[in-house]
Amino acid sequence: MRAALYTGNSTIVVEERPPVPPGPCEVQIDVAYTGICGTDLHILHGSMDDRVRIPQTIGHEMSGHVAALGTDVADLTVGTPVTVMPLRWCGACPACLAGHHHICHRLTFIGIDSAGAMQQRWTVPADVVVPLPADLPLTHGALVEPTAVAVHDVRRADLHAGAKAVVIGGGPIGVLIALVARSVGADVVLMEVDTRRRAIAGELGIRTLDPARDNPTGEVAAWTGGAGAAVAFEVSGSAAGIATAVELLAVRGRLVVVGLHSQQREIDLFRFFWRELTMVGARVYQRDDYDTAIDLLRAGEVGAETLITHVEPLANAAAAFDALRGGGGVMKVLIDCRATS
Amino acid sequence: MRAALYTGNSTIVVEERPPVPPGPCEVQIDVAYTGICGTDLHILHGSMDDRVRIPQTIGHEMSGHVAALGTDVADLTVGTPVTVMPLRWCGACPACLAGHHHICHRLTFIGIDSAGAMQQRWTVPADVVVPLPADLPLTHGALVEPTAVAVHDVRRADLHAGAKAVVIGGGPIGVLIALVARSVGADVVLMEVDTRRRAIAGELGIRTLDPARDNPTGEVAAWTGGAGAAVAFEVSGSAAGIATAVELLAVRGRLVVVGLHSQQREIDLFRFFWRELTMVGARVYQRDDYDTAIDLLRAGEVGAETLITHVEPLANAAAAFDALRGGGGVMKVLIDCRATS
Q1: Cα distances (angstroms) measured from residue B322 to each of A15, B61, B143, B327
Q2: What's A148-281's CATH class?
Q3: Which of B109, B263, B267 to mutate to test the interface with A (most CBs of A within 10 A)?
Q4: What confidence score (pLDDT) does residue B326 get?
Q5: Is A273 within 8 Å of B279 when comparing Cβ atoms?
Q6: Residue A307 near residue A172, CB atoms below 8 Å
Q7: Which residues of chain A neighbour B90 with C-beta distances below 8 Å?
Q8: Among candidates A163, A277, A126, which has minimal Cα distance to B267?
Q9: What are φ and ψ of residue B246, in 5° steps?
Q10: Which of these, B238, B242, B273, lies nearest to B256 by C-alpha position?
């Protein structure tokens, strides 16, 4: 079979590899589509070289069919369409004992800390496999993982129908958050500097602002009758994004930190005090976020056809990463692992 | 009557003034005790000169008896022991319409934006007057306002019985938070650099740490079996206090911002994401916080006799401010407004 490997030095190489047979409690998946995530770009840029084992197949947003079962696997059948929830927790640390497995102190992430999905046959522990409805297109199935991120973020926001929410950053996760927020009845504005990304969000019926040109706080003040937004999702990972979020929230407003901030950020704590704001971190997802994500994709709430701007054969994986790095009109890129040329 | 006036230039002057007769919907109070708050020190230092009208009587932590009623005042009787909840809201802004009167966009604070309680007769709107139980000593009654601050902070923390909480900063508000947190069943550690303040907290049965000498995160890790604290109250207003709080919280831990941070603070947002932390601002109090504060003081949960380290006659108000500015063994200072010499 063929696999796309990260070989260090910002390089992806597609080559022939022997498939890994499923051991006890493992499942081998015939991979259909694997999406490229922002985290995969971080890996490609070398930012996670302390976690990946070069050369390593990466990727964790995927869909496929069960190809083979190891021993001791119940509840799964060869041929079932599936995706993967790529988290492994210890079950014994204080976080796990408190029921927060997804933020386990020793959490490992399949596709970063072990081999990922950008290959034709992928062997994973059976307990991370999530069956998909037979009527969900496999291209849409590859969006379950990022949609579950957005579902988790919206759940952490305590969003209610009619609430006004701002999403700062309009990449795939930002747009998915806007769509999931809309699905719970929130009134949403998305801020994104890139014209083409704003256009894609606009096609999905999301109201957008350009924070570089428009006056974000002024616009939000006008939109909310001077109150400010009930919720802000910071998805850009930028210092400006955090500052804008803190500035535009209403009293008792809630800021959800989704974007990765690798540096400390200056925050106006007086504003937190004065308006009794709340800030919450939101990391990956829990199992029920997957169920909700599947339901939303099946109901067509996520605009999968619009979000998937590119589908490339596995042989072109390196070029697909390059296109995504270029940003702009590229939103979600899927690698078709069945098409090798 | 005599009144202590802030006259600018870090100066308090006690002089003779005519009492203000109560107008319609106003009450004149025969003031017994007025506590000195950190905010009063900020005023003395000139930090709030844009809000006070020099010369102005300051002070807002108080107790006394109703001395005279203006017209149109129902539900109050001359002679009733009372305190004051010194907030005035507009009732019409988005915060008020959402039910958050205490964070009204146009909130004014009696004792800052208008004349305060450090005088023998104080005239205030009738709707800010809160009756006190007849059996509550008036020295304790002067602690209702700061205790209500602590009650509000603990309520914003969602503290549950058995939860482990850290309070950073052991001035009067920090110690009151520790006591209120203990009253709801939390297991509390207080961090304070000043030896004498730690000793006072120790007298009240609060476990203390010296963050300058002990290793706060190490101690908290050991205390919580590696989990970290469920709640941290940042009361010090310092950059180090915020950094320590973020570092010692458990997954899904909650940081309550109580201290005033006049500068932006650097915050480790990656940690917020990684541990799904929450940070909330907490400002003043709501009416039911006053009721709880009165109940706690009446039940002896607040250690009022230990917290009140000094009672000075009104004539000595300037010296009392000086003593508090010196810090150290001084915890809560009350001005006895009935004793003029």
Answers
A1: 77, 18, 20, 9
A2: alpha beta
A3: B267
A4: 81
A5: no
A6: yes
A7: none
A8: A277
A9: -65, -35
A10: B242
The CATH architecture one would assign to domain A2-143+302-336 is Alpha-Beta Complex (3.90)
**Which residues on A lie below 8 Å from B257 (Cβ)?**
269, 272-273
Nearest-by-Cβ selection for B268 from A103, A228, A264: A264
Q: Are strands B278-281 and B249-257 parallel, antiparallel or unpaired?
A: parallel
| A148-187 residues touching B, CB cutoff 8 A | 156
A42 part of the active site:
yes
Residue matched to tokens 């386990």:
A104
Interface touch B282/A273, C-beta < 8 Å: yes
Cβ contact, residue pair A93, B226, below 8 Å: yes
The Cα–Cα gap between A102 and A96 comes to 8
Intrachain domains A2-143+302-336 and A148-281 with the same fold: no
Its ipTM equals 0.96
DSSP string, A143-201: THHHHHHHHHHHHHTT--TT-EEEEE--SHHHHHHHHHHHHTT-EEEEE-S-HHHHHHH
Using the CB atoms, write b or e for A58-69: b if 16+ within 10 Å. Answer: bbbbbbbbbbbb
Q: What is the mean pLDDT of each run of 10 residues along chain A (341 residues)?
A: 96 96 98 96 95 97 98 96 98 96 98 98 98 98 98 97 98 97 98 96 97 93 97 97 97 97 96 98 98 98 96 95 84 91 61
Chain B contact for A256 (CB, 8 A cutoff)? no
Nearest to B251 among A98, A261, A265 (CB): A98
**Which of A156, A248, A264, A268 would best serve as a mutation to test chain B binding (most B beta carbons within 10 A)?**
A264
Indicate the domain borders of chain A: 2-143+302-336, 148-281
